[in-house]
Amino acid sequence: MEGRLYLYDKGKRLPAFISGGEEGCCEHVVVFLGGLTDGLLALPYLPDLLSAFSKHNPPFALCQPLFSSSYNGYGCSSLTKDVEELAALLDFLHETQQTRKILLIGHSTGCQIICRLFQLQSQYTKQSALIVGAVLQGPVSDREYMAQLEFTQADLGLAHEAVLRDQGHTLLPRRSDADVPMSASRMVALAARGGEDDMFSSDLTDDELAHAVGNIPVPVLIVCSGADEYVPPHINTDLFMARLARACQHGQAVMVKEAPHSLAGHEEQFVAALFEWLAHRVHL
What we know:
Number of strands: 8
Distance between the termini: 26 Å
Strand order of the largest sheet: 1-2-4-3-5-6-7-8
Order of helices and strands: EEEHEHEHHEHHHHEHEH
Strand content: 15-25%
Radius of gyration: 18 Å
Number of helices: 10
Largest sheet: 8 strands, mixed
Structural class: alpha/beta
């Protein structure tokens, strides 16, 4: 995939890779937000997306930013910090690339970043006004997935104790994931009920789901995978997907049957569903 590399935040040296459009002139942009451990070219459908959006009328450029939380940085970051950096990216696009309309596509935790942006939209009025639509691809519960892992409950207990001592920055023992340093505060956010990241758990009430997604004023496409390896087997994905769509102001849901979390092998089906929704629900 070809493109241009920019620093959208020079102070933090955070880069964004933009494909399509022209230098300094990208009026319509798709911003892709990956999940935990993701970085550039994280999903197999991105080349198909770029190809399809370059032929769309109007054409869209594809922007892949890196945040402080990208790759293995998520354990010492937060959704709120992601939103701060996303806002800096949106300012950069508007001011240097003449961007006027933005479609956000979130994968996995990228979905929570989108939701968190609109929960805090009173702080980011100018940035959120650029957004014309949002795609939540693979919205899954970190809490329900992590509950299956061996050390989660022990580490969560340690994390709660550290947060109560106002030491949320404390790093936990590196046993759940030896490759990722995990702070107590991020562990609570990911694995505790009501944590900052806990937006897509199947046991959340309708009011809690509305708090997660009900602040999004633009059309929302929810795309779930029928064979998502991060969804515990007891979860009814069809039921949850329908509840999540109802909790949105303007929600629509699509199930990609037999697809894994990344939609690998089902790229064409995802792109087709996205463009059908775009044509009928999003004002460009």
